[in-house]
Amino acid sequence: MRTCTKYWVKITCDERRVQVYRCITIRISSWMTNYVGMLRIVLEIGRFIPGFLLFPWMFVYIRQYFRSVLQNKDDDYEVDRYSSRPIQNEGIEWDANTIATRLVSAINAVLMSITGIISVYTTWNDLKFDRSPVLEPYVYLCLPYMMYDLWAMFVTYQSEKPLRKKQPLRQSLRLFYMDNTQIVTHHIFIALVLCPVYLYLLNGIGDFVVGTFCLAELSTPFLSLRVIIKQLKLDMPKLSLANDILFTVLFFICRVLMMPFCYWSVGRYFGVPFLGVPFFIPIKCNVVSGMLWGMQLLWFYKIFKKMLQLILGFSSRSTTHKDVSHSLTNGKVNGHEINCNIHNHND
Fold this sequence. Notes:
This protein is 81% helix and 0% strand. With 347 residues, the protein is mainly alpha-helical. The chain is globular. It starts with a helix and ends with a helix.
């Protein structure tokens, strides 16, 4: 009886030890799982840090450079009674902020365009499952850029008028959003919706379509150059006109023709005629594509209308300049002839 009791006591002690060991193992494994999960989160956040450091540094450096350049041309910043910038330093600050914002935007557009070209080229054979080697790394830069650009636009918006800096921050943010609703909504939607969807939900599917949308930024550097020429007050009408023409052409190719190109590519991949693609893909894809394409068509209409006005205005100014020069030349010649006649008469 004693032996049996000792045996059961021994079994009970062994079971308790096993339970204790099991409990400790479970706790350690759960702790390790949580630790690994936290480590993954930290590493994932760390991938965005270079973008949050790079773009603000570029903005500050470029702004400082052009601020010194514009201060050397301080004679061009006289007080204008029609301007909302009554102090010279504030005008310089606004121009420097605008130039820095546009240059950083142009650099990001170049990076995005190169990413789009490489992505379309490397995923052409299999539009659905082929992976681009550069698209995911760029998306880790795209999200910080969108957040940075909002900050840079707000800084530029504040420096445009001196009274805005004296307003409370909440009121300034509200006015900034009201004046720039479309672009602010665009940036927030890309940063908080499109980038996370690509990184964590698509699982590498559809790099071709994302790369095609990246090509839409090919026209942005020319838009930035147009603003920079204006801010620096450069008298280069021919360069401005050529830049505007290139911007319009690239906008039409990369934004207006982008959607038909995507539909044609999908039809080629699945063996569906081009006109049958809208009936082949889901309705929600057609709705989203139609909204995006309609917006691009509206913008292109405005850009093309403005371009025609610039071309007609440039040609009329050139004609007027030639007529004035011709008239002045004839006047000098006629005057010379009159003087000669008078001189001969007096003789």
